[in-house]
Each structure stands twice: as C-alpha cells, then as structure tokens.
Amino acid sequence: MSSGLLATGSELIGIGEVADRVGVAPSALRFYEAEGLIRSERSEGGRRRFRREVVRRVAFIRVAQQLGLTLEEIGAALAELPESRTPNRRDWARLSAKWRSRLDERISLLTNLRDDLDDCIGCGCLSLATCRLYNPDDRAAALGPGPRFLLGDSPADVPPPSPPGCTRV
Predict the structure, then answer these.
(1) Which of 121, 35, 132 is closest to 76 using CA atoms?
(2) Secondary structure element (H or E) that encloses residue 14, with its range
(3) pLDDT for 29-79, tens place per residue?
(4) Percent helix, percent strand, percent coil in the chain, to nearest 5
(5) Where are the beta strands (DSSP E) in 29-124?
(6) What letters, b where the CB count within 10 A reaches 16 and e where it falls short, cover 16-51?
(7) Sheet harboring 48-50: ordered strands across?
(8) N or C, which end of the chain is more exposed by having fewer CB within 10 Å?
(9) Which domains, and CATH codes, for the chain?
C-alpha cells in the first residue's frame, strides 16, 4: 500500500505509488514505458522505480490524450523536454504554444458539432436538403473519412461526379 506521498530529491518511487498519484493502472504505466513515453529504473530486485518527474509527464500524457493527440504526437512533444531535470514552466509553455492553433481548431469543431447535433438528432431527417449527415452516393468520401459535413466540410467542397464510363485518377 502506498503512503500517498511522493519521494523527494533523487529518490525513486514505485509503480504503485505513481499509479495511485496519477490515477492510472500500473499496466498503463508499463504501456507508456513500452511506448517510450516515460522511463523507469530497476531496483536490485527488478522492480520498476520512477523518478518524481514521471508524475508530471503522465499527467501531461493523460491530458494530451483527452485533447485527442496521438501517442506519436505526445511522444514527439515529450522528446523535446529535458531528461536531466524536471521540466519547468518555460518548457511546458513552449509545448503548449505549438498546440494552441490545433486546440483552437478542436474547440471550434467541438462547438460546431455540439450545435449541429442538437438540430441533427432532433430533425428526424425530414429535410435531406439541409441534413448535415446526408451524403448521396457517398460523394463526401472524396474529402476524407468520417462525417465530413459535420466536421466542417461543405457539400460545395465535394468534387463533381465523373461522367459515366470515366474513372478519376
């Protein structure tokens, strides 16, 4: 059972204590380590021991995942942080500045989805001419995967259909 207190200085803390502190299962910590997002050291008995700054890194990973960032993007960001010391405010500010426009886009997308879904879910598709999910002949597939019109594309963005017998390259 963990004491609930983090080690200070250069002391190492166990996987259970880190898991309790950040609110994830030990298996998640092992996964993050296997993905190269965090590092541990091994005790003489072979147990994983973590430096204190891992708590902040795992918190960062969890928030970044909730924002929709991929593990690859998270790993690239963490690779920019210093290994020799706990990241400071300037380090974190540099990372967040790189993501600001992406976060603003995501906020806009989520706001639009929220507002559109209020209308869409209640509409019963009585008007296919204005339905944001209506996609005749799956023409919006040319714009990419997913519900393209809910994601911000317009029916006007869809390329015109090919004439019969003609294939696009």
Answers:
(1) 35
(2) strand 13-14
(3) 999 999 999 999 998 888 999 998 899 889 889 988 888 889 998 898 888
(4) 50, 5, 45
(5) 41-42, 48-50
(6) ebbbbbbebeeeebeebbeeebbebeeeeeeebbbb
(7) 13-14, 48-50, 41-42
(8) C
(9) 1-87 (1.10.1660.10), 100-169 (no CATH)
pLDDT in tens, 154-163: 778 888 876 7
Query: Is this structure's pTM higher than 0.85?
Result: no
pLDDT digits (tens, 9 = 90+) for 39-48: 999 988 889 9
Q: Is the pLDDT of residue 81 over 70?
A: yes
Phi and psi angles of residue 32, each rounded to the nearest 5 degrees, phi first = -60, -40
Q: Choose between 18 and 100: higher pLDDT.
A: 18
Q: How far apart are CA 110 and CA 150, in angstroms?
A: 10
CB 78 within 8 A of CB 94: no
Which two structure tokens, joined as six digits, stand for 115?
Answer: 């507002």
Beta bridge pairs of residue 70: none
Nearest-angstrom CA–CA distance, 82 and 58? 15
Extract the tokens encoding 60. 């960062």
Helices (H), 23-88: 26-34, 54-66, 71-79
